[in-house]
């Protein structure tokens, strides 16, 4: 499709500004050098003031940013100073400041082009979860507080009509989740994006995985029809060869000759996670898992803790049991209503201590202030998910701890993670002390399940979900069903014995359930609500 006159003019204007900037750029040779402790380089925002429009610089100063992080420095060199407007694939560790690395150049782009509400949307940021979209939108709002343009947000769970109205009034940058973005691109007449220039895909490896790939294809197709040729900026802390193919299609489907640059900060570093993160594992037999979790949480009452659990049923069970002993926990999972999710997300964000029981919807991108420790009670799906989960702590140069529960039979996990550049150290459990101080209270929780029919049903459902998720785990040689003693597993769900006679029975049950899910009415009800 030929370029429109308007977009040509827009690109010409942009090139002029960029040329001017190139002349002004001074590389003092100190960029990218790590500074003392807080994860930033020695390069300051003051030293790049000339590359930034006054309203943007003013906002950056108000946000208290002084130094650039390495990823910011590398991305700005390409997007703020280069003559071309390249597409970028950037991989940098969790908490390294990727959000500002892409948002600052986008806001600067608006100033360079002097766009206004009538120009429509010039840039779109896609995020895999609603909370991540909200968080990114909040940072964007801060950055644009002195700009004349307005940002917008569209996400599952939001009021579609209000979002459409907001788009109609003109949002220069729109942050959103894929399903809702597609919805507006196809159905909202007031959504003007014929001068669209930049697409950001945050948590790119997640967004090109199964489950999102169809939506992403649809999104790219639709944006491709805008005909201008846009840059694509992909960011993540991890990469995956399985999804690389689809990801590279995003670069080339509508780039109209836009060059592609790769920034992979992992190559220069031996560890996949940040240095100030202490990572431990503990061996714990199946039947003792919840007992040990309870003891840990008792001892961590004064800390801010996130506990990753693989099913919402387990979350419901553990939350009820723990609160019966006055150990209050927040919980968040994909089946909660959006309002509930917002309330919990905001409350946990504000609190200085407390426990959040969560599923993997909280694994990626969440920037919660000062989480002290991440506990992976149930196993992560793969090394990438492990890296994102532990990345919720030790952010922005701060220190943090992470602990993963392993059954003794799962010891290979340690070597497996070492092969993925994650070093774990063993934490020993002093069993006699735990028994001495906590066994009595634990017995009270056991009694609660024994006596209460509702709790027993909850425990059975949680157990069933755990077994199903264990049996479908991708790393079979580590999470091996053959060495799973179902009765012992049942004990950590406060049950006397397993619901199934064998793992085979559990598999059968799983198949029936899945068939029902695939062909039942529920499967078609809310296609975009299920994952996020
Ligand atoms: N230049 C900077 N100076 C000080 N703090 C910064 C800077 N850049 C980012 N931060 C802070 O560091 C924290 C982590 O940033 P951000 O959320 O962008 O990380 P990320 O790389 O996107 O992490 P993830 O991969 O987990 O999504 C945030 O609290 C952010 O405000």
TrEMBL record:
Q: Can the keyword Hydrolase be found in this entry's annotation?
A: yes
Which residue range or ranges hold the Helicase ATP-binding domain?
79-257
GO MF, one annotated term: RNA helicase activity
Cited Gene3D superfamilies: P-loop containing nucleotide triphosphate hydrolases
Q: Which InterPro entries match?
A: DEAD/DEAH_box_helicase_dom, Helicase_ATP-bd, Helicase_C-like, P-loop_NTPase, RNA-helicase_DEAD-box_CS, SPB4-like_CTE
| Catalysis: reaction(s) | ATP + H2O = ADP + phosphate + H(+)
Q: Where would I find the Helicase C-terminal domain in this sequence?
A: 276-436
The EC number(s) attached to this protein equal: 3.6.4.13
User: Which parts of this chain are annotated as the region Disordered?
Assistant: 511-532
Keyword terms? ATP-binding, Helicase, Hydrolase, Nucleotide-binding, RNA-binding
User: PROSITE patterns annotated for this entry?
Assistant: DEAD_ATP_HELICASE (PS00039), HELICASE_ATP_BIND_1 (PS51192), HELICASE_CTER (PS51194)
Q: Name one Pfam family in it.
A: DEAD
PANTHER family for this protein:
RNA HELICASE (PTHR24031)
Q: What is known of its domains?
A: The Q motif is unique to and characteristic of the DEAD box family of RNA helicases and controls ATP binding and hydrolysis.
Name the job this protein performs: RNA helicase.
Regarding protein family, the annotation reads: Belongs to the DEAD box helicase family.
Provide the protein name.
ATP-dependent RNA helicase
Q: Which organism is it from?
A: Hyalella azteca (Amphipod)
């Amino acid at each position: 499709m030929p370029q429109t006159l308007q977009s040509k003019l827009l690109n010409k204007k942009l090139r002029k500004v960029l040329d001017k900037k190139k002349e002004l750029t001074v590389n003092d040779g100190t960029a990218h050098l790590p500074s003392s402790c807080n994860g930033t380089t020695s390069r300051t925002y003051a030293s790049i003031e000339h590359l930034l429009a006054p309203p943007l610089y003013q906002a950056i100063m108000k946000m208290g940013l002084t130094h650039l992080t390495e990823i910011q420095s590398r991305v700005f060199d390409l997007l703020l100073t280069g003559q071309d407007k390249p597409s970028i694939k950037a991989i940098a560790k969790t908490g390294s400041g990727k959000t500002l690395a892409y948002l600052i150049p986008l806001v600067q782009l608006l100033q360079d082009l002097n766009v206004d509400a009538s120009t429509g949307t010039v840039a779109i940021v896609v995020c895999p979860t609603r909370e991540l979209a909200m968080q990114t939108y909040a940072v964007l709002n801060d950055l644009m507080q002195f700009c004349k343009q307005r940002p917008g947000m569209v996400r599952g769970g939001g009021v579609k009509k209000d979002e459409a109205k907001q788009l109609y009034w003109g949002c220069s940058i729109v942050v959103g989740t894929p399903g809702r973005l597609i919805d507006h691109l196809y159905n909202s007449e007031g959504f003007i994006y014929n001068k669209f220039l930049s697409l950001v895909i945050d948590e790119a490896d997640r967004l090109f995985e199964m489950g999102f790939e169809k939506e992403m294809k649809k999104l790219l197709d639709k944006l491709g029809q805008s005909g201008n040729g846009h840059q694509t900026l992909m960011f993540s802390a991890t990469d995956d060869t399985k999804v690389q193919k689809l990801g590279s299609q995003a670069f080339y489907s509508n780039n109209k000759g836009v060059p592609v640059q790769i920034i992979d900060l992992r190559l220069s570093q031996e560890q996949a996670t940040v240095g100030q993160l202490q990572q431990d594992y503990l061996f714990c037999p199946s039947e003792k898992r919840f007992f040990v979790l309870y003891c840990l949480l008792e001892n961590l009452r004064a800390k801010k803790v996130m506990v990753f659990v693989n099913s919402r049923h387990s979350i419901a069970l553990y939350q009820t049991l723990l609160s019966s002993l006055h150990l209050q926990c927040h919980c968040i999972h994909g089946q909660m209503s959006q309002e509930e999710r917002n309330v919990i997300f905001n409350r946990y964000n504000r609190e200085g201590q407390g426990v959040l029981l969560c599923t993997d919807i909280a694994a990626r991108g969440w920037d919660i202030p000062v989480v002290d420790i991440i506990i992976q009670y149930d196993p992560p799906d793969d090394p990438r998910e492990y890296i994102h989960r532990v990345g919720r702590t030790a952010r922005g140069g701060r220190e943090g701890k992470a602990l993963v529960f392993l059954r003794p039979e799962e010891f290979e996990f340690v070597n497996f993670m070492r092969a993925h550049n994650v070093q774990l150290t063993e934490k020993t459990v002093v069993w006699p002390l735990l028994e001495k101080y906590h066994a009595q209270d634990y017995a009270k929780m056991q009694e609660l399940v024994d006596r209460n029919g509702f709790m027993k049903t909850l425990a059975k459902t949680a157990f069933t979900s755990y077994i199903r998720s264990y049996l479908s785990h991708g790393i079979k040689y580590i999470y091996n069903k053959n060495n799973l003693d179902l009765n012992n597993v049942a004990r950590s769900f406060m049950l006397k014995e397993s619901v199934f006679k064998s793992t085979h029975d559990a598999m059968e049950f799983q198949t029936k359930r899945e068939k029902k899910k695939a062909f039942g009415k529920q499967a078609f009800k809310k296609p975009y609500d299920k994952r996020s």
